[in-house]
Structures are given as C-alpha cells and as structure tokens.
Amino acid sequence: MKDDKIDKMIYNYYSNIRVPEKINNISKKMPTTSIYRKNKIIWKISTVCAIFLMICTVTFGKDLYLYILNSFAKTHEGIITAINNDYYADINMEYINSDKTQLKVDYILMDDFNLVLAFNIKSDINTNIDKLKFNDMIITDENNNLIFCDDIDTYEKYCKKTNKEITTIPKSSFSNNGYGIETIEKNKNEIKILYKLYSSQFPTSKELNIEIHTIELITDKGNVQKSGTWKIHIDLPKEFYDREYSYYHVKDKANQQFDINIENVVVSNTQTIVKYNGKTKGYDKSIEGIEEKINNLLNDEGTIFDEIWIEDENGKKFKMSAINDGYGTKFSADGTFEGELPFSLTKYDLTKILYLVIEKDNKEYRIELEN
Fold first, then answer.
1. Which residue, 310, 314, 370, is CA-closest to 345?
2. Which pTM was predicted?
3. What confidence score (pLDDT) does residue 325 get?
4. What residues pair up with 133 in beta bridges, in sequence order?
C-alpha cells in the first residue's frame, strides 16, 4: 500500500521514544469525527505513539514527514502531494565517517523540477549544532552531468576532470533555479537538514554521486569546520528517471482574450510549469521606455499578472508555488518577453479540463486548457 513507507518512517523515528501520559490521554479522548481523523498521517502518528508508549518532547512535529509538510505546505504544496502518493525513496545506508563526523542520506525525491535530499549528520563536538552547510558539495550523475555545485574551486576541478568549459556555475549546473537549506531537527551534536534544489529540467539520472570534503557546523559557541571525505552513491528508483508527464494546451487560441501566448503547460509529479511569451504594448525603443514599461507590467512578485492560478473542472484552485531564481518574466531589448511560472498542481490532481485563471486590472480571464 502507498502509506507503507510513511508507516515505516514514522515507526523508525519514534521507536526509541516514550510518550507522556498526557499525550496518551488526549489521543484517547479524540472524537471519531475529529478533523484529525481526516488526516491519515497525523492520525497514524498518534496511534503509533499510543501503541509503542513513546515520548515526544515537542509534540509530533519532529517527525520527518511532518517537517516536510510544514516546510513545503505554503510554498510547494505539490511536493506534499507527491509524498502523499508515495513519490519519494527511503535510502537505507550506513553512516559515512570522516574526521569524527558521520553523514548519510535518509530520503530523496527527484523529478524534472525538484530534488530534495534529507541528510542526517552526527559529530564528536561537545556543543549544540544549530545549522550546517556543505561548502564544497558536488552532485553528479552517471553521465557526469553536474546536478549541483556552489563552490567555484570544486566546480573548476570538475570541469578539468570532465574536460568541460568553465562558465558560470548556474549555467553549467542543472540546479539553475536555485536551492535552499533548512534544518529538520537538531539534538546537541546531531542534526538533520533538507537540501532543496530547483531546476528548469533535471536530467533523467539513474544514479547520483554526492561528494563532500568540508562540513561547516554552526554552533552556539562558534563555527566548526570538519575536513574529510564523504562520498555517497545513490541508485535512484525507476520512477525517478522513467518519468511521465501530462501536457496541456489552450483549447481555443483564436478566442483567447488575454494578450499573452500560453506556450506550454507541463504537469509533473511535484508541480506544473506554465510557459508563456508576448510583447509589451506601446513599446518604446529607448532603454528608459523599456524599464518604465516593465515596471508598469510587473507586480510585487515579479510577474505580469495581479493574480494567477490553475483551476480544475471541479473548481478546485491550485496556487502558484514559490518563485525561485529561474521563474518569472524575462524581457528582451526588443520589447518581447517570456516566462515560466510554477503551480502546485501535480499529475495526481489532474482532470480532463483545466483552467488557467488570470486577474489583471480588475478583470478575470479564464483560459481553458485541454490534454
């Protein structure tokens, strides 16, 4: 069943903890019609806690699944939908030990647009670790594609080793839409973190190779640098590289009221990308005119729409996901523009007909999309 991995993850996390009697009493008094019953994962956590008499020092929020839920709930709801539909992999590996610091990957998720890695780190330092960063981490695949690198020296070594031209890292790396790091959990000299990498299109990699030589531990007594060699090889499940997508197009372009061309709508496991292009009205060839026109077009989020969302044929709305480095509208000197916007709709949410709904200048435009 699709929830088996979630059950296993919850069990593994809480298996060495006991639950205070107060929490047990609260769970017993929950009515069967409670809203918590509707959320299978949260309900299962409370059930597991009651069965195994475990302790939770900060409620149930320390569980990895719930952390990911909180981390992505407001910005990348599509990733939560993918996880709920079993689109992630549990990595069963031993710790890699170097310079008295142990590291491993617990979970991974990857499709064209998102790569999420959950790292687990233990060190020998006698102080509390608040955050950490892998300063020279590089991720490649079996074809030597550069999936991620944020260190110029490491990047130049990679180019020399693979006989590739040295350009700027964002242009060479598939993580060209930026990345983020978040702490999942910290407990003295142990810490779990999420690396969230974003791309306009990750390759269909079958294997990932992660190499790290420097780990910077940010503690309550200052920064500690660990130097060693941590190498991790991950064989990705077939569903991560044998990806299937759904493509939608505008049903009737001739009657499209909004004066922007919707070029492409691609739906993946974790999100939807809408690609569009057009030309500014009243285009002025002077640079000042272009800048003024752009400023008039863009809103605070860097898009040319006041509001935009996708709606299914049942009226359910799917909001725009957080805009990372590679998304938004890009203008050219000739007055043309093109852009990409991410939405929380995933392939698990699809209906035959979708609507792209745009609000601009107090008007609403509904663009019908079909598969």
1. 310
2. 0.73
3. 53
4. 216
Q: Is 44 helix (H, G, I), strand (E, B) or coil?
A: helix
Q: Is 167 exposed, middle or buried (0-12, 13-18, 19+ CB in 10 A)?
A: exposed
273's tokens = 């990308």
Query: 10-residue block means of pLDDT along the chain (371 residues)?
Result: 48 41 41 39 43 31 52 72 89 94 94 92 90 92 94 92 82 74 86 89 95 93 93 96 91 66 91 85 49 49 74 93 67 78 93 89 86 84
Residue 135 three-state SS: coil
The residue type at 346: T
Residue indicated by tokens 């959990």: 185
Tally of CB atoms within 10 A around 304: 22
**At 288, which helix (H) or strand (E)?**
helix 287-297
| Cα–Cα distance measured from residue 129 to residue 218, given in angstroms and rounded to the nearest whole number | 6
> Which structure tokens are listed for 125?
């330092």
E strands, 66-113, where?
89-90, 96-98, 101-110
Torsion of CA 64, 39, 273, 326, to 10 degrees: -30
DSSP string, 198-214: E-S-----SEEEEEEEE
User: Do residues 170 and 248 touch, judged by C-beta distance below 8 A?
Assistant: no
Phi first, then psi, for residue 134 (nearest 5°) are -90, 95
Do residues 130 and 193 touch, judged by C-beta distance below 8 A? no
Q: How far apart, in whole angstroms, are the C-alpha atoms of residue 143 and residue 161?
A: 13
In single-letter form, the type of residue at position 314 comes to N
Is residue 166 classed as helix, strand or coil in its secondary structure? coil
Residue type, 175: S
